[in-house]
Each structure stands twice: as C-alpha cells, then as structure tokens.
UniProtKB/TrEMBL annotation, chain C:
Protein's membrane topology: Multi-pass membrane protein
Species per Swiss-Prot/TrEMBL record: Candidatus Blautia merdavium
Protein name: Energy-coupling factor transporter transmembrane protein EcfT
Annotated compartments: Membrane
Keyword Ribonucleoprotein: no
Keywords per UniProt: Cell membrane, Membrane, Transmembrane, Transmembrane helix
Amino acid sequence: METKSKKLQAKDLINVGIFTAIYFVIFFAGMMLGYIPIFIPLLGLVCPILCGIPFMLYLTKVKKFGMVSLTGIVLGLLNLIMGSGVLVLIFGIIFGVLGDVILRAGKYQSWKCTLLGNGVFSLWIMGYVSRMFLTRDTFFASLVSSYGQEYVDTLMSYTPGWMYPVLFIVTFIGGILGALLGKAVLKKHFEKAGIA
Amino acid sequence: MIELRNINFRYAGGTDAGGLVNIDLIIPDGQVILLCGQSGCGKTTLTRLVNGLIPNYYEGELSGEVLLDGKNISRLPLYETAKYVGSVFQNPRTQFFTVDSTSELAFGCENQGLPEEEIIQRVKSTAEQFDMDNLLGKNIFSLSGGEKQKIACASVSASNPPIIVLDEPSSNLDMSATKDLRRMIQIWKQQGKTVIIAEHRLYYLKELIDRVVYLKDGRIEKDYLALDALKLSVTQQAEMGLRPFDLGAFPVTAHPVASSGSIECENFHFAYTKQRDALDIDSLSLPQAGIIAVIGHNGAGKSTLARCLCGLEKHCKCIVKIDEKPYNRKQRLSLCYMVMQDVNHQLFTESTEEEMLISMAEPATDKADAVLDRLDLLQFKERHPMALSGGQKQRVAIATALVSERKILVLDEPTSGLDLQHMKEVADELVTIQKMGKTSLVITHDYELIVSCCTHVLHLEHGMVQEQYALDAAGLQRLQNFFIESR
Amino acid sequence: MDAAVTTLKFESKAVIPTDPRTKLFLTVTVSTIMITGGTGGFMNLVRPCLMACPIVFLLLSRKWVAAARFAVTYAILFALELTVLPLLTGTWNFILGAAVGIYTHMLPGFIMGYYLVSTTTVSEFVAAMERMHVPEKIVIPVSVVFRFFPTVKEEYAAIRDAMKMRGITTLRSPMKMLEYRVVPLMMSIAKIGEELSAAALTRGLGAPQKRTNICKIGFGPLDIFFFLLAIPCWVGFFIC
C-alpha cells in the first residue's frame, strides 16, 4: 500500500492522530517540570528527548510528506485550544514543515536526515519560550514605573538576549538526543516485538 | 452473492499462520454462515477478504478473486466496499472512532455523505430496533464492553449494508451481552442480510446459522448445512478442535479437591467510583490451593473483588488472612498477582528471561529457568516477550508470578477469544499451578474452562456473594443452572 | 425534521449554550492578550477583566471545584507578590518575580482552555472544525487525538497497576523508569491504533465526497454578546 500512493490516506491520517496524541501526552508529562519556572530552559532539552521515542516509531509507520507538518499543526492547535496562545501554533507550522522537508530529502529513510529532522522539528517547543523573549521589552517597561530603571536593568541582566539563540541550540540538541534515544528503544523493543 | 474464486493468501513477512490455500466458496444472499476452526486456520483472514481489509489494509501475497455481485472487492477502495459490507470486530474497546455514542451510530452514514435528515432517521430507527435508546448520547468510554459491542453492531446496522461480517464478536462478552449479540444477528437474519461470522464460541449461534464452514490450515475442510453440523457429537467436535454447540454436553473433567486450609477475606467494602462496581462483602472464605471460578453478570463486582484482593484499590480497607497471618493492602501487592485480560500491560523488558529476573528479590537464573521450563517457555527465554503469541505471553505473566513466589493468582478472563485447544492449555496451566500449592481465582464467563479445571465456584451479584460451592455433582448442577438454563 | 433533531440525544457537557467556535475565540482572546498584550493605560482595565472572565465562565457552568481551585491559585499568586516578593532581593527576587509574572500571564489562558475542553464534546469540536472549513487532513488527526487521550489514560492506569503488582515502582535508574512506562504504553497504543484504523476504514472513513455532520452547533444571541464583549479587548490590544 505504501508504495501505491505518496499522498496521505485515511489510514495515515489516523496514524498521524495516534502518534500525535502520544507525543503530546509524553510532551505534557515532560512539561510538568516547567511548573518550576527556572526549569523552563531545561524543557527545551528534556521534552524533545522524551518525545524522540514516539517520534521514531511514528517515522516507521507513515513515511509520507506532510506527516510531520500535520503533527506540528495539530500540536499547535491543541496548545491553542488549551490556552497557550497563537505563537505555539505558528511555531508548530513552521518547524513541522521544515522537519518534513528535511525528512523528505532523506526519503524518510536516511538516518542523518532523521536526526536533523527531529532536531529541527523539536524547535516548535520554542513557541512556548519565545513569547517571553518577544514580549520581554514591554514586560520590563511595565516594571519601570513601579520598581525603577536601575532595578529593572539588574533584572534584564539575568535574562540576557543571547539566551534566546542558546535555547534554540539546546532544544535542537535535545531533538538530536531524542532521535538517538528513540532509535535505541526502537532497536531494543519495537523491532524485536514486531511492531515497527 | 459473494464468490471467492481460487484464493491463495499469505501475510507479508509472516509465517503460514492465517494464510489461505485454494479457497473456493460461494455465499448466496441472505445466508447466515459460520466460519470455524482452530486459531490460525484462516477464518479471520477470510472475513478480511470479504470486507476488503485484505489487500487494502493488511499486506500480503494474494491471488484469486473475491467477487461481490460480480464486482471485484479487492480492487475497490475501502470506502466503496463499506457501502456493501459492514464489519464488527473482536475488541469492543478499539473499534469506535468517535467518543459520543450517537455520533458513533451516525459515523458510517456521515462518511457516505448521506443527507442529514436521513441519517437522523436511521440512527433513531436503529436505536429503536436494537432497543438501545438508553445508550444514545453517552460517552462511549463510560460504557461496559457489552454495551460498546452493541454500539458497534448498531452503527454497522445504521449504514445498512447488505452484508455483515463479524470477526469473533463474542470474545470479550459476558453471557448476557452474548445474548444481546445473538438477538442482533437474529434481526439481521430477519432483514435478509448476509451474515458471515468467524467465531470460537459456538453455543449462542446454533439456532441462527444456515451453514457451517470448517477451515483447517487455510483450507476449507468441511462445508456443512447447519443441520448436519449440529448433529456432530461433542467428541467429533473436540477432535476438530471446536468448542461445543451444546454447552451441556461438554465433558466435565474438573474435580473438587479437599482444601488444605482457607484464605479468609474480611471487610471487602468498596464504595462506588466512576469506573468500578461497588463491592460489599463482610467476610469470605476461599479454599487454599483451589482453582476458584469467579462468575457473575456484568457489574457484579468481580473485577473490583480481584483489584481489592491484589491490593490495587487504595481505599479498600480489607484484610486477608492466611493461616491466621493477616496481610494488609501493601503486603498483598506481593502476595497476590493478577494476570490481566490484556497481558501486554504487564510485560516490561526486552527478553523473557529478564522479565523473570526483575520479578525476583534475588535474581537467580537457574530458578527462573526451572519455572520457565515448567511452563514450557524455556525455548523462548531470549525472545522479546511482546513477540510471543497471546497464550505464551499469558504464561510468561504467570511465570513471573510463580518465580516471585506469590501465593494467590488472579486471572482476569484468561480464555477470552481462545479456541478449544488453547482453552485446554490454560486449564492445564491452572492445574499445574494448583499442584504447586497456589490458589487461583479465575474471573471468567467461559463455561468450558470452568468444567475443565475449576474446583470451586464463587458467584457474585450486585457486589455480594450470591453463592459459593465446590464443583461436585451438586455444584455442577448449580453451575449449569447459571450458564445453560438462564440463557 | 426539527422534532427529529431535538429528540436525537448527544452527549452534552455544556451548561451555558455557547458555540465551540465562540469558546475557542474567547480562549484565543484571553491567552493572546494576557500573554503578549501590552500593559498600562486602558489595558490596566482589560487585564483584570480577562483574568476574572474564565473563572466566571466556570462558575456559570457550575464547575464549582475547578473554579474554586483556580481562584485559590490566583489568590496565592497575589499574596506572594504582595507579601513575600518585597522581602527578597537579588536572584531570589528575580526567580519568584518571574514565576509570579509568568503565571499571572499564562494562567487565565489555561483556565479558559480548561473551560473550553471541559464543556465541549469531541463531536462538537469536529463539527466546529468542519464548519470552519478546516481541511479533512487536519480534522481526522485532531479527532483521533481526542479519541486517544482517554485511551492513553486507561492504558497508563493499567500499566501502573501492573508495575505496582510487580513491585517495580521503587526508584531505579531514570532510564528504566522511563522504559517500563513508555514502552508498554506505546506497544498497546500502536496495537489499538491498528485495530481502530481497520475498523474506521471498513466504515468508510476517507471517502472523497464531503462528510455529513449531524452534530448540531450554531451561534445564538449569547455568542454575539460574547463577541461584542471581546471587541474592546482587541482594540486595546492593538492600540496599547
């Protein structure tokens, strides 16, 4: 069947749903760490690592262009519905499509492209963090009136602007590690069990 | 009319199991036909050819033609076939797509793009026909297995295909739900639909079927008129590996044993929570080293009893005493072990051997091997547990319980969906466990299993003990009253 | 015809009759403005309103427990800001300040999302998406996702029970803890998924013609009222 059509069929769409569901659940479990805000930078590392497991199994099931984009969109929509704002959806779309493009370049087979693809796709998580950086100036500006410029300057030094690209890199590395972990679990369990 | 012409099929990448060889079969309109045979004989495969899942979903090498009124089903896309063939599957938990029962009934019609008014009309009349108005507008996750299966049948019926295919539909059903299923098939028969049923449990079908096709190793071995099939003696049926059409005639091989002591359960009270039934038992005495069948209707509290016994319900303050030694909830977690209905949940590691080792307080390979050998699993010790067959997985779960020296084993529906031979294997395992001095509780609605091995029966209703008896001659009569007369 | 529609029962979770699209719009309104909106001026008026609004909705829907729980969370945040925060200096002040700041910005959106999810059935979501002309390629995965959340919950509960009985809940290496939980979960989800798609396909999912949807949703006066309420908030958002 898979050779018959390059387009996503109903069967594939159901698979997209199933794996996006489990991806989201595992992601959410990782997010629980984020209840303590100082861990938020860590989320970018932890969540993609955990999510590598469902993602790698997912890649054995569908292998068609559009799968990762759809996952990104659906993840974004879920976050939208749950009140995380529009930014996560935008990031979901952008990095979903990018991830898909990279994976397609490797025909959904090449290991290098898989590593890179999961790394890039994982950046959708930056949708959470980005809003803090994008609204950083207004946030601090609002503090000036009540706390004074000097105080706000000290605060700003704790969250330097260069943190933002660093978080991107951290998340990307998380995605790479996640793909490695996913691959290991795939070999150790899913292939032996005959479900991959 | 359905015509299968010279069909040969092999599943991709698999063994020969479930494949088909040289099948020629003509099913006229309006016939109710039973496909039977041992596991792996190809009856499920045959149903998948009719509903088009082979070759459009399950992959493999197929030759020959499946014709429906002259149209080749294998070449039709599945959404076209769906208009002619409706399917009901084995597992009630996995075949609903929506979450709301009303939407579920409408699902097939909605996919066909029928006009709204007509769908509403159909949903209403289907619900009326199957007497299930009370099930409309419910969250399907809140329904029991029997009710879910009823929804599955009704939703097929609502899209009104002329052919209905059922693949082991009663596997996960208790007796009263099986009765409902029989009534629904009856209605389809009256409507003149062609009904194809692949099934292991035969007793509920005997008044419905017109024809019986017996498969063996992928070939059609016998093709009976129903009348002739019903004349087969129980011994003949057993030789064919079939469960009986007539439960009462099934040979009783169970023996009551004098119990060496008793397990006292006290204060089994458990308040109603959303998913589970209430339990209200002050005291209960179970024979040690017995094989106790736990029977009762849906909602009787069988699984709640099992969960409380195993220490899984935090809020149950019950106490279990063995030889005067009391065990509290936490202690019971390592005293009892439950083999779950879906045994996939309780296998964690990458090899059968390791599965054994993590269960032991002091891992010792020789001890693990001894237990594996006893349960005929030694050859699989390097294999991934999930790659084993259903029965083997079940035995691995039992083996982990034995190796961790549990005194009480609880098995939740261990024979659902099993053919005669595999059912007997389970019975043999239970006897083996019993000889090792363990007590087993078997939650079951499988009459054949009970009379094959159980020593005692515990009958629950409404969270209370209805009756409790040893399976001697008098006990057998009571058991038959429950299973056979009450049908 | 109308009689037929009204007598066909659907699962219902809502108390105030609002269209899922309205609820979605309000959720987006609250989350966007609270998270990325400006402060000061007119927004000083809008923000407290938006913070209170989800709680009001929960109360109107008789979700007493949830409303109380979230209200208490708000109270704790304010109490922290007023009492503990001024006492701290340096890094600790920053950490707590950021925490409180982030929570007060994000919580209203989450509560609104909670209200949306807890008062809308999956059928209504699907109907809403189809009305908004969301392509089928997105509608199908989203409905599968909603179908699967309860399944994941059931399966995970069963796995946890199994772990308890095996006595492997005690702390081991984090890798093992992850493996024992995630691997069996994925195995059963993959299996259930396979059976589910087979069943869905035999019932004609994926046919090229347009699907019908018999789930009734639609805008009423209440919906218009809520839309009107949201307008000044958005005006403020773009001006400030």
